[in-house]
Amino acid sequence: MNSPPDRISNHTLLLSAWIGLILFSSTGMAGRWANSLYAMLSSHSGLGEGLAMLLFQKGYHVFLFVVLGGLLVSAASSSAPTLSRAILWSFVVGALSEALQLAFDGRGPSLADVLLNGASGSAGAWIWLRMLSARRKTAPGPVS
Question: What is the band of 74 on the pLDDT scale with cuts at 50, 70, 90?
Fold first, then answer.
């Protein structure tokens, strides 16, 4: 059963909240929290502070944007152009997230992170579409 067109779907609300989390992660406060967490993790990892910070930071980017890609697909109403839109929006949100860092001391945008964000969102969308496709193929048909 579809929701009325004047209501926002749960998928759209979750997608909006996730984009909010991504944008928050670009703020100065989030940067300070992340630096504290990096320092704590690196002291117990044996990897050294620089490598632990790099792996954790880039892993967080990948996590945020893989989930974003899946949410972009699940919030879409049609499946045909969904992947291309999800790829586009992954790069747009990734670029906005990086550009937002210009407004905060101690933060700086990175083109490499825009590319990582967009690629991660694209991968998440592709994975989600593949899972949906596999699910449709294995779902039992209507009983006659």
Answer: confident
